[in-house]
Specification:
Two copies of one chain form a homodimer. Chain A is α/β, with parallel strands linked by helices and 338 residues long. Chain A is built from eleven helices and eleven strands. The first copy, chain A, has helices at 19-31, 43-50, 75-81, 86-95, 108-119, 154-172, 193-203, 231-256, 260-279, 306-321, 324-333; strands at residues 5-10, 35-41, 60-64, 101-104, 133-134, 141-144, 178-182, 209-214, 226-228, 288-290, 296-299. In chain A, the strands form two sheets. In chain A, strands 3-2-1-4-11-10 form a six-stranded mixed beta sheet, with helices on both faces. A five-stranded mixed beta sheet of chain A has the order 5-6-9-7-8. In chain A, β2 (35-41), α2 and β3 form a beta-alpha-beta unit. Chains A and B meet through α8 and α9 of A and α8 and α9 of B.
């Protein structure tokens, strides 16, 4: 059997830290004998969260850190100054080859800055994108990039498409993932200066299945498996996506509880609605991977519960077992045209 | 009494033309004695749609045009070559001062190109934005720009904020509309090169109530009345917004009809859900205004029914009666800082 996959989990990151974070890491350990987990954070807090849980003690390690990076801190400063934080220590373990991957529900900005500054990029990768997986009517879609690359060059978006395609193909088993470029119309000449420059690069890249420009509505409708965009637009889409879904579901619940009659009906439709909402839960695929680094960094939602953390650890294991970084290296060696 | 407001309606634009378009125009006429409507399009088709409808004949005019601009045509070409189309003839009437406003459910691209090329801009306005009104949990929000300005200058976004603020204040009665700049975080230093340049311009503009950066999720949550962005991002947000809401409502209906039990429940919750969906229907505010032109152009949804057309005509009347273009002119005369 191959070496165990070693995943570091930031025990202090997110709204539910350390309790549900630690629980998720333990669940992942119990589920898969081929994984080893290190929890970074305040040891006393972690031990408390572990008490009462059953887990293989030889595969769970704790690295005590005094500091925690808070959500509101300026990311780059935090990464540079809080050297004894659960995030910096975890990222350094990946950088040093002591671990394969790092999972955090903490500050997105700090994870992005830390991934780039501490872990470092694969040779040839210009910038590492952050790529959340969104649920759609027909399956998951990778929205790449939603990271720190606000004004990217066209060549970066080509790399995002290449990495996103390899990622989705390996992680979800989709054959030749459909890659779309987010624009304002399907015709090649539609878009802004960036997309007009990116379109021909994607079109001539032989290793991806480029299906052309897409519009925002194609994402929830599941028209593609990989949606390529700059991080500014990606962030706007991601937040709008989550916001609209959140508001509608909230209003729906309110409406169902608004009258005696609707309350009675709500009890009857509840099981069917639950099934539907499960379909729209993309956390089964783990968190958002930050790709193109020497290792894997996974950012889960700030409100992650144990299940998302467990899935994120499983995601790291699959990423390593499929040697996705090895595939990225090969793809980059083929040169800019794939 | 003041002169009647004269609105031209493109009888051939949209999925439901001419039937429901003509019906909507007639409803608007019957509702308000101070409006005059001209329908542009094939006279025989329009007469057929009018047969059986009751309306004041002295306030309804028909301008026969042989041509129709189709949805798939290249917009600029269509506007330049189809001089006898319902859209070009209607826009020319606004340009020539024969009408105050033009309403169309036809091609957005052609309406944008035609507004800019045929109607012309108010002095001082760099580019006319298209600003759809989105429904939110707390009221309508104007998303400005979703038009043709793909790579705008910062000074254009300042003008969008100024016009959007005046528009919302007058049209929906909101006092000091809250203006937000779409970005990737609330802090001033967050964003791309464009938003970083726009932020200080909005901050120092004394005639608007700038509340700072917003994220995509703040739009459905109703955190602002005016959301300022470039047309590329605006289009991505708009299409994602409509797409996510459409997919969720579709899946919800499917789920409710999936079992005998859920069907029984659906009957009971239906009235409450209908009330909720009415709240999320922004068509009561009309269509998306294209602002900064010498006149008003309103683009309604391609699938507009009579109610949206009726509301769009009412929107044109209010726009004229409140002299919003006069207010834009004054605002521009105050100079770039408002």
């Amino acid at each position: 059997m191959a070496d165990k996959v070693h995943v570091v989990v930031d025990a202090m990151g997110g709204d539910n830290a350390p309790g549900l974070i630690v629980k998720g890491a333990v669940d992942a350990l119990n589920e898969n004998a081929n994984v080893e987990v290190t929890l970074t954070g305040r040891e006393a807090d972690i031990q408390k969260a572990l008490s009462g849980l059953q887990y293989p003690k030889d595969r769970l390690h704790i690295v005590h850190c005094e500091e925690v990076i808070e959500m509101a801190e300026p990311p780059v400063d935090a990464i540079r100054t809080k050297k004894d934080s659960s995030m910096v220590r975890g990222l350094r373990m990946v950088k040093n080859g002591e671990a394969d991957a790092f999972v955090t529900a903490g500050s997105t900005g700090a994870a992005l800055a830390g991934g780039q500054l501490l872990v470092g990029r694969i040779r040839g990768i210009e910038r590492p994108p952050l790529a959340p997986i969104l649920p759609t009517a027909k399956g998951p879609v990778l929205l790449i990039d939603c990271g720190a690359n606000m004004d990217p060059r066209a060549s970066m978006l080509l790399q995002f498409a290449q990495m996103g395609s390899i990622y989705m193909s390996n992680m979800t088993g989709i054959d030749k993932p459909r890659v779309g470029l987010v624009s304002v119309g399907t015709e090649e000449e539609k878009g802004n200066a960036l997309t007009k420059e990116v379109f021909p690069l994607l079109k001539s890249c032989e290793t991806i299945n480029f299906v052309g420009n897409i519009e925002g509505r194609d994402i929830p409708e599941g028209a593609v498996d990989v949606a390529v965009t700059d991080a500014f637009t990606g962030n706007a889409i991601l937040k709008t996506y989550e916001g609209v879904a959140g508001v509608l579901i909230h209003e729906l619940k309110d409406a169902m509880l608004s009258t005696t009659r609707s309350k009675a009906g709500a009890l009857l439709v509840k099981p069917a609605l639950k099934d539907m909402l499960v379909k729209f839960d993309a956390t089964r695929y783990g968190g958002a991977p930050m790709l193109g680094l020497k290792g894997l960094v996974v950012k889960t939602h700030g409100n992650s519960k144990s299940e998302e953390i467990r899935n994120a650890v499983a995601q790291c294991v699959l990423f390593k077992e499929k040697d996705i970084n090895g595939q990225f290296v090969k793809e980059m060696e083929l040169g800019p045209k794939g």
